[in-house]
């Protein structure tokens, strides 16, 4: 049964709403200001689009995100499936290893990478993907592990094998479709990280969309704010649509037993 | 669910099932399918970490020394360590308290509202970074709309010593991702509070206060404490927002390390950076270990 | 420790709506001191609402609630002194079993020694002496419900309220705990209201069973009376299995079913002259067919139920399938495919028009 909100609840929610929404509105207002701060318009957004590197860097970040997601799936799905089958005795230790990036601050990791492999990281920006796989590993491991725990994996694999499928066919045709939502979750996590990651990119001297925003800000704060608003509000709207979506049949029902 | 997993593991241990051949050769053979993963981890995680840990104990002549760590707690570095800890504690505390209140209030709204809040929180908690910094510059900076509005209302934000680019300002901005993170992680704990507990307490003669003190607080405290620790670690290692806001001028541990990575390294400070990075890891490991212990010894089991 | 005298409970004209849904419609229920009444009905019939209103966890829109003759409307839940057992998950997870049981005494500031003594006494009553130091997640579902019962009894409640306390348990534990609740309730003598959707459970445990539908108490009587003399068609259909047989009212005001005359009751004030008669499986007998009668049937299935066997037979004249229950030792006389004649052995059946 849905309880009614008290005055205190409303006060808290109102304050929270103000704290989170007022800066957003103020930033939107700021991003719409004209040259002298007297007029409003889309001039800053037009300015962004005209900037050299906008499309290129956005494209770079998108490619990075895609490569990261593919690497995550290639590396993590077979590994975790194996941990749920024949390799169960290694599950605890692998689980622990996957949590290590959570306790290593990205800044320390950046330091380590910069000193340990200076040559490797100088050929192409897409090598950042390998590092992003490490940084997202605690989250992607968890998403996939929960997904695999919720299906009768051994039975499915045995059924597929007895029907004559190879292990690779089993993975692609049986296992992956049955944990689709977990895989979507892992992809979503790695894409979100790769699109927004700043620390590793800037410290290893690569240009991605987030570092480009930072560079743009040096010459035009208005432009940087517009870009920030654009990316924050954009990400928020996408997630909101995905999460809330159309009104589902089962939502908002009061049940009485 | 757990007994299904146990059954499955049992079946495997007895050597049943089509995959039993994998184990026939013993432990080492069963590691073979994990080689790609272990190689990846080894090269991209263990190798860099081992590298900085080793270098943090070396002087410029590659001799063993503890001097680097001694330097970490002196002068500008010791100061930045304190500033970082203070900033993290304060922002974790504000985030935890405000987030807990918000999560509690949201519990009573409809399902769609709750989902929208969860989605918003996950965006705000994760995509902070550079855009967040500029959003605050735009609204609370000297020319920002909020600043102008407050001035119109008679409060000159910049009349005193406040600037958005100080430790206080950065703490304030961090709340913008700390509070949503708290809401995100603490809400499930609140959702696990059974209405039956409140009703049982009422029917047994308990007042709302006894319910709060005897049941709600003991049940929620481990989740509250552990999430607060998570918020601390989160603020302690945050880099992007602080750097974008202050261009790396604020004395914060991550910013100092960033400057050292970035080049401009004075020769004798080369290994100091490694030591600082290791210290950061150390603090984080301590905090996260307490986090894990709190969760393990909490009496409430899922 | 027992509450020998018990306390009477009267709910009078209680009405409660959720939005447009009427949960209780002018609901009346009287429970005698020390009596155990079970409210039985499908989900959504308002039985839980009645219990929660009595507990003070919900408020009614109108009506009176008298406990021991005193109106308790407006008294908050924590002042009503009623012990409540919930469906599941109601034990406080951070407290041990003993602390859970002592909770009600603790909030009443009863001395620590008395708390411990009485909690142990109750633990023994529910047969869990060994578990006092454990936490709720270390107990089985059945044990958790025993502790919940002990906790509810610890405050010497004026009324014990049980809200589907067995429905989350396995079948075997369910019957065992059901009998135990009955034993304990008889022993302490506390007036008890028990809510369930399981008719077998209600029949087994209650002094009186109250059958509810659409927020109204349709019949409240002993289990035997509810089963043998249901007050109307809806009660008859809800409690126990029923055959629906085509029937016509004859001129001398009897029912004619498959050519047989049967006595009937008309509590619903029917004016219709035909409909379907409600006959229980054990009120039908099978025999060998003699001539071509409308009650001739052929056995289509046998279901072995232990001491009884349910035989399904298809009536030749209209194709209806009837269910007949008989002692299993007699059932071998009626194998599948055998031709039989169905005889109705009932004196006061109900008609559903």
Automatic annotation (TrEMBL), chain A:
InterPro entries: MetI-like (IPR000515), MetI-like_sf (IPR035906). The keyword Phosphoprotein does not apply. It is found in: Cell inner membrane. CDD domains: TM_PBP2. It is a multi-pass membrane protein. PROSITE patterns: ABC_TM1 (PS50928). The keyword Glycoprotein does not apply. The chain crosses the membrane at residues 64-85, 97-121, 181-204, 224-245. Residues 58-243 form the ABC transmembrane type-1 domain. One of its GO terms (cellular component) is plasma membrane. One of its GO terms (biological process) is transmembrane transport. Keywords: Cell inner membrane, Cell membrane, Membrane, Transmembrane, Transmembrane helix, Transport. This is Unannotated protein. It comes from freshwater metagenome. The lineage of its organism: unclassified sequences, metagenomes, ecological metagenomes.
TrEMBL record, chain B:
It is a multi-pass membrane protein. It is found in: Cell membrane. The chain crosses the membrane at residues 28-53, 83-104, 116-142, 162-186, 219-242, 272-294. CDD domains: TM_PBP2. Gene3D superfamilies: MetI-like. GO terms for cellular component: plasma membrane. Pfam families: BPD_transp_1. SUPFAM superfamilies: MetI-like. Its main location: membrane. Residues 81-291 form the ABC transmembrane type-1 domain. One of its GO terms (biological process) is transmembrane transport. Keywords: Cell membrane, Membrane, Transmembrane, Transmembrane helix, Transport. Belongs to the binding-protein-dependent transport system permease family. CysTW subfamily. This is Unannotated protein. It comes from freshwater metagenome.
TrEMBL record, chain C:
Residues 9-239 form the ABC transporter domain. Keywords: ATP-binding, Nucleotide-binding, Transport. InterPro entries: AAA+_ATPase (IPR003593), ABC_SmlMolc_Importer (IPR050093), ABC_transporter-like_ATP-bd (IPR003439), ABC_transporter-like_CS (IPR017871), Mo/tungstate-bd_C_term_dom (IPR008995), P-loop_NTPase (IPR027417), Transp-assoc_OB_typ2 (IPR013611). GO terms for cellular component: ATP-binding cassette (ABC) transporter complex. GO terms for molecular function: ATP binding; ATP hydrolysis activity; transmembrane transporter activity. Pfam families: ABC_tran, TOBE_2. This is Unannotated protein. It comes from freshwater metagenome. The lineage of its organism: unclassified sequences, metagenomes, ecological metagenomes.
């Amino acid at each position: 049964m849905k309880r009614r909100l008290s005055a205190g609840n409303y006060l808290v929610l109102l304050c929270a709403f103000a704290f989170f929404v007022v800066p957003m509105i103020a930033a939107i207002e700021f991003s719409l200001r004209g040259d002298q701060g007297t007029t409003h318009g889309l001039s800053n957004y037009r300015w962004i689009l005209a900037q050299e590197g906008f499309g290129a860097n956005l494209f770079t970040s998108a490619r990075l995100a895609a490569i990261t997601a593919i690497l995550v799936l290639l590396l993590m799905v077979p590994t975790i499936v194996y941990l749920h089958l024949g390799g169960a005795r290694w599950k605890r230790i692998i689980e622990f290893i996957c949590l290590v990036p959570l306790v290593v601050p990205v800044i320390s990791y950046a330091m380590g990478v910069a000193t340990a492999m200076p040559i490797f990281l100088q050929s192409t920006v897409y090598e950042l993907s390998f590092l992003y796989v490490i940084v997202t590993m605690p989250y992607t491991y968890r998403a996939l592990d929960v997904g695999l725990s919720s299906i009768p994996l051994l039975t499915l694999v045995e059924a597929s094998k007895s029907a004559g499928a190879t292990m690779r066919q089993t993975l692609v045709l049986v296992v992956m479709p049955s944990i689709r939502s977990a895989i979507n979750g892992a992809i979503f996590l790695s894409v979100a990280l790769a699109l927004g990651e700043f620390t590793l990119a800037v410290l290893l001297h690569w240009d991605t969309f987030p570092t480009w925003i930072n560079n743009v800000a040096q010459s035009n704060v208005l432009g940087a704010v517009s870009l920030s608003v654009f990316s924050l509000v954009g990400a928020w709207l996408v997630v909101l649509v995905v999460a809330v979506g159309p009104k589902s049949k089962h939502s908002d029902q009061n049940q009485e037993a | 669910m757990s007994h299904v997993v146990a059954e499955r593991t049992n079946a495997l241990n007895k050597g049943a099932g089509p995959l039993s051949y994998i184990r026939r050769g013993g432990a080492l053979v069963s590691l073979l399918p994990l080689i790609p993963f272990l190689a990846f981890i080894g090269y991209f995680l263990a190798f860099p970490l081992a590298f900085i840990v080793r270098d943090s104990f070396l002087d410029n002549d590659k001799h063993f020394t503890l001097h680097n760590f001694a330097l970490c707690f002196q002068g500008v570095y010791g100061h930045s360590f304190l500033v970082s800890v203070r900033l993290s504690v304060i922002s974790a505390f504000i985030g935890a308290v405000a987030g807990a209140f918000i999560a509690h209030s949201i519990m009573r709204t409809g399902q769609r509202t709750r989902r929208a809040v969860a989605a918003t929180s996950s965006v705000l908690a994760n995509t902070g970074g550079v855009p967040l910094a500029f959003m605050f510059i735009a609204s609370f900076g000297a020319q920002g709309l909020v600043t102008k509005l407050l001035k119109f209302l008679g409060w000159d934000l910049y009349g005193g010593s406040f600037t958005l680019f100080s430790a206080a300002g950065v703490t304030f901005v961090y709340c913008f991702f700390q509070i949503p993170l708290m809401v995100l992680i603490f809400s499930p704990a609140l959702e696990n509070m059974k209405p039956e507990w409140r009703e049982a307490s009422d029917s047994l003669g308990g007042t709302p206060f006894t319910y709060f003190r005897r049941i709600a607080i003991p049940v929620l405290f481990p989740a509250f404490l552990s999430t607060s620790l998570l918020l601390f670690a989160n603020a302690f290692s945050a880099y992007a927002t602080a750097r974008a806001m202050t261009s790396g001028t604020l004395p914060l541990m991550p910013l100092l390390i960033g400057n050292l990575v970035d080049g401009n390294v004075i020769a004798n400070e080369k290994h100091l950076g490694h030591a600082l990075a290791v210290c950061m890891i150390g603090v984080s490991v301590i905090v996260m270990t307490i986090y894990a212990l709190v969760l393990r010894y909490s009496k409430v089991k899922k | 420790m027992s509450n020998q005298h018990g306390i009477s409970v009267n709910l009078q004209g209680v009405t409660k709506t959720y939005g447009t849904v009427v949960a209780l419609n002018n609901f009346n229920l009287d429970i005698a001191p020390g009596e155990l009444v079970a409210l039985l009905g499908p989900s959504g019939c308002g039985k839980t609402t009645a219990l929660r209103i009595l507990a003070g966890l919900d408020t009614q829109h109108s009506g009176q609630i008298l406990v021991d003759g005193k109106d308790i409307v407006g008294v908050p839940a924590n002042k009503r002194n009623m012990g409540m057992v919930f469906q599941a998950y109601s034990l406080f997870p951070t407290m041990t079993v003993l602390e859970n049981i002592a909770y009600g005494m603790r909030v009443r500031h009863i001395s620590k020694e008395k708390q411990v003594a009485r909690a142990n006494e109750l633990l023994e009553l529910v047969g869990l002496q060994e578990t006092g130091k454990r936490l709720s997640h270390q107990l089985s579902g059945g044990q958790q419900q025993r502790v919940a019962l002990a906790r509810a009894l610890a405050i010497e409640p004026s009324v014990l309220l049980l809200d589907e306390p067995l429905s989350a348990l396995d079948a075997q534990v369910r019957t065992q705990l059901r009998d135990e609740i009955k034993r304990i309730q008889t022993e302490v003598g506390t007036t008890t209201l028990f809510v369930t959707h399981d008719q077998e459970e209600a029949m087994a445990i209650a002094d009186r069973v109250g059958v509810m539908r659409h927020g109204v108490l349709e019949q409240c009587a002993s289990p035997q009376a509810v089963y043998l003399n249901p007050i109307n068609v809806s009660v008859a259909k809800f409690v126990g299995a029923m055959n629906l047989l085509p029937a016509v009212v004859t001129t001398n005001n009897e029912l004619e079913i498959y050519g047989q005359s049967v006595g009937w009751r008309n509590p619903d004030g029917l004016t219709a002259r035909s409909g379907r008669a409600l006959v229980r499986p054990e009120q039908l007998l099978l025999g060998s067919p003699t001539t071509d009668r409308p009650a001739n049937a052929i056995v289509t299935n046998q279901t072995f139920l232990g001491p009884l066997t349910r035989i399904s037979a298809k009536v030749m004249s209209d194709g209806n399938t009837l269910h007949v229950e008989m002692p299993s030792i007699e059932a071998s006389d009626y194998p599948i495919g055998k031709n039989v004649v169905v005889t109705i052995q009932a004196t006061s059946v109900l008609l559903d028009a």
